[in-house]
TrEMBL record:
<keyword id="KW-0812">Transmembrane</keyword>
<keyword id="KW-1133">Transmembrane helix</keyword>
<protein>
    <submittedName>
        <fullName>Uncharacterized protein</fullName>
    </submittedName>
</protein>
<keyword id="KW-0472">Membrane</keyword>
<feature type="transmembrane region" description="Helical">
    <location>
        <begin position="12"/>
        <end position="40"/>
    </location>
</feature>
Length: 43
């Protein structure tokens, strides 16, 4: 395993974690802000 492979794997893992984190934050944002707004707007 050379340095380039290790670096690529590291960036790939980082990108995967970043994508998962972004997805989780997006879902939490939807739950906390968008759903209550829709519920209030529907009243």
């Amino acid at each position: 395993m050379n340095v380039a492979d290790a670096l690529d794997d590291g960036w790939l893992a980082l990108a995967g974690v970043g994508a998962g984190y972004a997805l989780a934050v997006g879902l939490v944002f939807l739950l906390v802000f968008v759903l209550p707004y829709l519920a209030v707007a529907a009243l």
